[in-house]
Amino acid sequence: MKLYHNIGKLYTPRGFAAARGSAMGEIEEIENAVILVRDDGTIEYVGQPPPVPLLEKEGEVESIDCRGLIALPGFVDSHTHCVFAGERSLEFAMRAEGKPYQDIARMGGGILSSVQHVHSASIDNIVAYSKPFVERALSLGTTTMEIKSGYGLRAEEERKLLEAAKRLGEETPMEIIKTYLGAHAVPQNVPQVDYVLEVLEKQLPALHTMAEFCDVFMDEGYFSKEETIQICSRAKAFGMKIKLHADELAETGGAATAVELGAYSADHLLKISEDGIRALAESERTVATLLPITALSLRVGYAPARKLIEAGCAVAIATDCNPGSAMSENMQFALTLAVIGMQMSPMEALTAATLNGAAALGRAETHGSIERNKLADFVLYDIPRLEYLPYHIAVSDVVAVIKGGKIVEACSRGF
Ligand SMILES: [Zn+2]
Q1: Can you list the positions of beta strands (E) in 200-342?
Q2: How many A from CA of 395 to the centre of ligand 1?
């Protein structure tokens, strides 16, 4: 057992399922808190210092002084593309000059340029390139991270990416959850129908055991509703869970389709319709995952977070970390944008970045809040209160990161 004591203030959402609507703003605040962690990394007790008999009963307890710091749950980044093998900063600069995306794609940029990088890289290259991003995410307070494939677009290349994601989970303290996103784009010079058939007949049968989730980029110019349903139905028959890229570039009924398919999340939602909002509000499972760093990076309007929350949806936020439209592994920055750009309160944003991110990955029972029986995933910050976190823009005040009860990152001030 380990006892983290002298926590100045602990903030956490509560519950073993996503928080919806106004419940997203309910954050428990405990002054002078302790967290007692079992040897298996789960929480035995959280609250004000327990009576001495409880501790005596536990026998040997290692005691860690948290020096009055603030504790928050580790972030659950439920949407990233964090296995890639090259960057696209020149394309970023061209976009800043106003060059249209189609022109950039014609010059060899866009998703297909990341596909080129992956095709010419080995698994070792991909792991070496991606690992610093995962390690930085950890040092910035993320303790669980979803990673999607999708820059391979061929069975053997998608396999490389999923294998690299698995190794990132083994070679760093980050907990990685894998998603297969073969239907991210159609490769150059391949007819759309042929590629959908390849996903159905070749990639899914070969790769379904390597990923927990299957995701599809359902949008204008990418995959239609019919193709999405076909791919996801096959994935479900293989026992996979579903996530969808939905209503980002245009409203194509993505949110409602995600609900229909029983998806764990519908992601992006920049162009979501009133019907889409209603469908998500009525769904028991599907979380609305918003990616404000992408909206900032692409200079487009943010997703309607307030409308979604007021309708009673469960909203999550994530980084979308990828080399094209969101080159950031910083969940705290996503939280800042959620507050500044999408008018979420700091409490709602914290719930979105932790408990609801866990729900978007089917892990709300074990992750996403600091509660008895959940994993002891939490972060110590040198800040005066929760509100300071989004307020101190793009600067990290993390002092230590604790994953499964162990200090995996001690960032500063000699912790
Ligand atoms: Zn994405």
Answers
A1: 213-218, 241-246, 265-268, 287-290, 315-317
A2: 24
Tell me the residue range of the domain where 67 lies: 2-74+367-410
What's the burial of 345, exposed, middle or buried (CB within 10 Å: 0-12/13-18/19+)?
middle
> What spacing in Å lies between the alpha carbon of 245 and ligand 1's midpoint?
6
415 within some domain: no
Identity of the amino acid at 411: C
What's the length of the chain? 415
Q: Model-level pTM?
A: 0.97
Cα 171 to Cα 265: distance, rounded to the nearest angstrom: 28
List the structure tokens of 3: 């006892």
The total number of structural domains that make up the chain:
2
Q: CA-CA distance, 283 to 314, in Å (whole number)?
A: 9
pLDDT digits (tens, 9 = 90+) for 135-185: 999 999 999 999 999 999 999 999 999 999 999 999 999 999 999 999 999
Rounded distance from Cα 308 to ligand 1 centre (Å)? 20
Cβ-in-10-Å burial (0-12, 13-18, 19+) of 124 comes to exposed
The reply to whether 102 and 226 lie within a common domain is yes
CA of 105 to the centre of ligand 1 (A): 18
**239 Rama class: left (phi>0) / alpha (psi -120 to 50) / beta:** left
| Short-list 340, 291, 341, CA closest to 317 | 291
Ligand 1 centroid to Cα of residue 21, in Å, is 24
Q: Using an 8 Å Cβ cutoff, are 377 and 144 in contact? A: yes
